[in-house]
Write a structure and sequence with these properties.
The first copy, chain A, is an alpha/beta fold. Chain A has twelve helices and twelve strands. The first copy, chain A, folds into three domains: 53 residues, 434 Repressor (Amino-terminal Domain) (Orthogonal Bundle); 136 residues, Rossmann fold, CATH 3.40.50.2300; 129 residues, Rossmann fold. Strand 2 of chain A pairs antiparallel with strand 2 of chain B. Chain B binds a DNA duplex through helix 2 and helix 4.
Chain lengths: 340, 340
DNA sequence: CTGTTAGCGCATTCAA
DNA sequence: TTGAATGCGCTAACAG
């Protein structure tokens, strides 16, 4: 790979001139300009972004910390992020946290060593971890679909409580009174959705039965197992709200295996509206999230924060307050299909 | 963020000494060593990987060019790749080609500018593009699940022809004679799978009927449409081999809507064994690919190529021949579920 | 407008 | 063993 010096020599100019025409940072006479362009063409020169990063203190790289890329929800978020960052000429580096949840500190360090310009978190850290991170650096951070409230770290997502509330209310409006819940782990997300369920039940004067509440990890298989548990008590609810589509699909499956018809004998509402909810029979009624949009908004916001920061550093030398958009709430919607 | 100079000052040593203890590249007296470690601790120093990359000419970054991250198959490949690269301390940068297939050249340039150490292609380029790329640079390249034969570019995946052959043979063994095909675009992948179908039909003395062959893009919706076409001729095959699970699910759906029972009236075999094949009813019989394994093997191989290259550069200064493992073929299998 | 110079943060010769 | 000096490829003052 040729470097700037080789181009300068070939074009018979100084390296600063080459730099100037590459970046358009200062006027250069048409004559020299052409000579440089020609040399660039002939030698197929591409500026070394490593060297640029070093001096500009900007990598044009953003990091995305994701629990599991192979999960459909996260993959879609990522796809949205990538779309925007690519347009803005940023690269995205992914960090799959997967099973080793403990080592996020490691991932943060990795990103800091590589000097990413910003980070999008699809994975829920503890508030302490986030605070510590903020103390350590001022690398902009955005939470995408991780509903935590941390000063200085904006959140992009939907109103989880209301969405869950809407799901359950829909069931209630259809006449259901005995409504079960399959909910997830103790993440902010899980807790909020459960809260929405409880609020809806309360607001409509319905009582929650302990035995119709089951907790399980978010997967089809676990949803199946959770449903088995719900069903083994003899009686069963007439409807179940599942805090994710995966769980719902598993639960439906279980109901089916037990000889229950959906929606005649038992109804289901899921959450997220990922692909599988549209291929199961009957089609899953669920809460639609604009997943890709969330990713896009998160990326847009992060880039805005990055550029604002580097802008303000030039002018004042000290950090501005973070973006004023500390919470971007996108609209969810209930999509009625065939399971209610 | 502190830099090496600050650490040196704090520890009262030279920057070279700091460098040496950070990398363990040369012996350092225990005394100085301790002073450096202490300074590193106190200031929370992390070496700037940008600067290291510049001087070492190694970014420890690999690029992954992917058609669409939100596609389940690719997401799984990516997940496998990430697992291995993370272990070996490489970062992965993704490039989502998505709709703008034309601009791969742009993506290649992007990766070259960023000086990635190697690239994994999940996306099918033309052979010309690949040759041109090879002429331009000696950045190692691996094809994952892109069955192209290009000298110097290893491939990791399954034996596509045999896999398709097995799928169709299974149908034939179950007594089917009128077997339709829903196949994809004119990629190497699509062509090979079609070839497997044709070979199986021929080998078993079955004739292919033109009207039972339909081409469509790889998606559930298009599979549905393709099936509609197949069905509109009045008569219909007793079984259909679809070159992807998405197509198969769409096709099954169409059959269902037309009042056909699966597998009583019509059978289906898919390809890939992605998640949805296990949630549809009846469960889709399909060709299982070890998707994540393919990703892992591709990453393993790429890293091997990278390290071999940088090793050989030190010794001889000229490039070694690429790795001798030019084709890694993993085993596929037919998983019988409920659609045959 | 153009060229010369000085670093960005680090690894690595070369002397000591 | 240690430190001073050089340079990776590039941008941005600074002088002309």
């Amino acid at each position: 790979m040729p470097n700037i010096k080789m181009i300068a020599r070939k074009a018979g100019v100084s390296i600063s001139t080459v730099s100037r025409v590459m970046n358009g940072s200062k006027p250069v006479s048409p004559d020299l300009q052409k000579r440089v362009y020609d040399a660039v063409q002939q030698m197929n020169y591409k500026p070394n972004s490593i060297a640029r990063s070093l001096i500009l203190k900007k990598t044009n790289l953003i990091g995305v910390v994701v629990p599991d890329v192979s999960n459909s929800f996260h993959a879609q978020l990522l796809s949205g992020i990538e779309e925007i960052t690519a347009q803005a000429d940023y690269g995205v580096m992914i960090c799959n946290v997967y099973r080793n949840m403990k080592q996020q500190q490691k991932y943060f360090n990795l990103m800091l060593e590589r000097h990413v310009d910003g980070i999008i978190l699809l994975h829920e850290n503890t508030i302490e971890e986030l605070n510590e991170f903020q103390k350590m650096t001022n690398t902009p951070l955005v939470l995408a679909s991780v509903p935590l409230e941390v000063p200085g770290i904006p959140f992009v997502g939907i109103d989880e409580i209301t969405a869950a509330y809407d799901a359950v209310t829909h069931l209630i409006e259809k006449g259901h009174k005995e409504i079960g819940l399959i909910y997830g782990d103790c993440t902010a997300l899980g807790i909020l959705r459960k809260e929405g369920y409880e609020k809806a039940m309360r607001d409509h004067g319905l009582t929650m039965k302990e035995k119709y509440l089951t907790q399980c990890p978010c997967s089809v298989d676990h949803g199946y197992q959770a449903m088995e548990q719900l069903l083994c008590s003899g009686s069963h609810p007439t409807a179940v709200f599942c805090v994710s589509d995966e769980m719902a699909v598993g639960a439906m499956d279980c109901a089916y295996d037990k000889g229950l018809r959906v929606p005649e004998d038992i109804s289901f509402v899921g959450f997220d509206d990922i692909e599988i909810s549209q291929v199961v029979r009957p089609r899953l009624t669920t809460i639609h999230q604009p997943i890709k949009e969330i990713g896009k908004e998160a990326a847009r916001l992060l880039i805005e924060m990055i550029e604002k920061k580097s802008g303000s550093m030039k002018h004042s030398g000290k950090d501005q307050a973070a973006s004023d958009e500390s919470r971007i709430i996108l609209k969810h919607s209930l999509v009625e299909r065939g399971t209610v």
